[in-house]
Amino acid sequence: MAVCALLLTATTGTAAAADGPSVKLSESQAGTGGSITVSGSGWRARALLMILVCGQAVPSRGVPGGTNSCANADGRAVTTDGKGHFSKKLPVAEPPVPCPCVVHVATVTGAKAEADAIFQVAGHAVEPLPAQTDGGRLSVLSDTRLDGSGSLLTWFGAPPARTLVFTVGNVGTSAVKDPVFQVGTAHGVFAPQWDEQQWRGTIQPGGKARIELPVELTGGAHGEYTVSLKYAGKVLAEQPWGVGRPWGVTLFWVLVFLVVPAALFRIGMAVVDRVRPRPAGGVRHRGLRLPELALRLPGVKPSTAAHAAPPTSTLPWFTPDADPGAAGGRLSAPHDDSPTSHTTPTREGST
After folding, report:
1. Least confident of 34-48, 268-282, 318-332
2. 295 exposed, middle or buried (CB, 10 Å; 0-12, 13-18, 19+)?
3. What is the value of pTM for the model shown?
4. Predicted confidence band of residue 5 (pLDDT cuts 50, 70, 90)
5. Are 49 and 108 in contact (CB under 8 A)?
6. What is the band of 351 on the pLDDT scale with cuts at 50, 70, 90?
7. Are the CB atoms for 179 and 208 separated by under 8 Å?
8. What contacts 68, CB < 8 A, 6 or more positions away?
9. CB-based burial of residue 121 (10 Å sphere; 0-12 exposed, 13-18 middle, 19+ buried)?
10. Which tops the pLDDT comparison, 335 or 261?
11. Can you tell me whether residue 263 is helix, strand or coil?
C-alpha cells in the first residue's frame, strides 16, 4: 500500500508539472469598472508577469493580435513567490477589439511563458473570430541578427536603427503570402512595444525565405534592449541589443554650461567698463605711456617723438628771461663778461 501511495503521489506531481503555467479567475464575467482576482500556479519562481484583458482571443489560439488587442493601460504586473504562485486584483476594462475575451498572463523577462483564461466583459461587443488558415506555418530556420551600426547623428541623440535579419521556412501544406510579423522592442523589465510589419512575398510549402525588417528606437535611447519577433501570436525569436549612450549630447551640454557663463561674464565686463565714471578731463590713464616706458627701460633708446615731447617741468635757471641760448648759446652760469654786469660810465670830454 505504501508503494502504491508513493507511485500515485509521483504520478500526480508529474502531471501537474506537465500542465505548465495555469490561470484562474474569481469570476468569469464582470462589467467595466469592477475588478476580479487573478491567481495562478506552475510559473517560474520570482518571475515578473503582466496581466491583461485581451479581445479577439481564445485559450486555444492565444492572442493573435498581440498586445494591440489588449487593454494595456489597465494591465497589472505581479511577481510570483518562491513556489511559482501569484494572486492579483485586476480592474475590468474593455479591450480595443470585440470579444471573445481572455485574461492573458505572460512573463516579462526570462524564458517566455504565457497562459489564458476565458473572460467575458459585460456589455462589450462580441464578434466571431477571424478565419484561421492552418495550411501554412512559418518557422525560424536560422539565428536572428541585427545588421547595421550607429552614425555621428546617433552619437548626438538621433534614433538608433538596425535591420533584423532571419530566415524562415514554411513547414505547412499551403503557401504563405505576404506574412505579417510583429517586431517588439523591450527595455529592461518593461513589456515589449510591438510594431506590425508586412513582408511582401510568397513562401511555398517546404520553401524558405530571408526576411529583413527594420527596427528603430526612440531618439536618445541607450542601454540594454531586447528585440522580439512574433508571428501568428507566437514569439519566434529574441535578439539582445546593447545601445551605447549618446555622448555627443553630454558634450553639447558641457560646452553650453562653459561657453554661456563666459559670454555673460564678457558682456557684463563690457557694460561695467562703459557705465563706470571717467576721471577729470575725460581722459583715462591706463598706466605708463610708451615713450615714458622706453625712457625707464635700460638699453632701450627712446624714439624721436619721445625727444620732441615737451618737458613736464623746467629748471629754475632755464626761465625764458635767463635763457642761455639768447646770450650767444653758452651753457654756463653768468660771469663778469655778461651784458648784465655793471660798468663805470664814461663822461664826455674826459681824456
Report:
1. 318-332
2. middle
3. 0.44
4. very low
5. yes
6. very low
7. no
8. 96, 194, 196
9. buried
10. 261
11. helix
Contact 132, 61 (CB under 8 A): yes
Strand 29-31, strand 114-122: pairing:
parallel
Output b/e per residue, 146-165; b: 16+ Cβ within 10 A. beeeeeeebeebeebebebb
CA angle 210, 214, 219 (to 5 degrees): 160
CA gap 143, 95 in Å, rounded: 34
Q: What is the mean pLDDT of residues 42-51?
A: 94
CA distance 155 to 303: 60
CA dihedral 304, 308, 312, 314 (to 10 degrees): 120
**DSSP 3-state of 185:** strand
Buried b / exposed e across 81-93, counting CB within 10 Å, b at 16+?
A: eeeeebebebbbb
**Average pLDDT of 54-69?**
85
Q: Of 78-87, 327-336, 338-347, give the range with the top mean pLDDT.
A: 78-87
User: Would you call 3 exposed, middle or buried from its count of C-beta atoms within 10 A (0-12, 13-18, 19+)?
Assistant: exposed
User: Which value, to the nearest 10 degrees, does the dihedral of the CA atoms of residues 202, 203, 209, 214 take?
Assistant: 50
From 310, 250, 260, 230, select the one nearest 62 (Cα to Cα).
Answer: 230
Chain Cα centroid distance, residue 121: 40
Quote the Cα angle for 27-29-30, to 5°: 95
Q: Quick check: bond before 100 cis, omega within 30? A: yes
For residue 4 the three cell numbers come to 502504491
Give the tens place of pLDDT for each residue, 209-235: 999 999 999 888 888 999 999 888 788
Please check whether residue 144 is in contact with residue 166, taking contact to mean a CB–CB distance below 8 angstroms: yes
Residue 338 pLDDT more than 60?
no
Share above pLDDT 90 across residues of the chain, in percent, rounded to a whole number: 34
For residue 181, what is its C-alpha cell? 510579423
